[in-house]
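Handoff note, outgoing to incoming analyst
You'll be picking up this chain. Sequence as last confirmed:
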Amino acid sequence: MRIKQIDGYNALCEAKGVERNASLLVMSPDQVRVGDIVMIHLGQVMSKMTEQEAQQAWELYDEILEQQENDSS
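Most recent structure output, in case you need it:
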């Protein structure tokens, strides 16, 4: 997700039109900034990602969702 706003130890993040609030307790606010792409797990910002890493992750995620849809049909 891309960080849209940082308020203390909270970040408002967005991906594919969905917004989520995430905690910056694992990665302190001085390690990330607005515009960075981050990996979020269980509501925590876990790491920064490059544009390429994020694109690859989304492609894989989309493949998994497509396979699940095909399996349930």
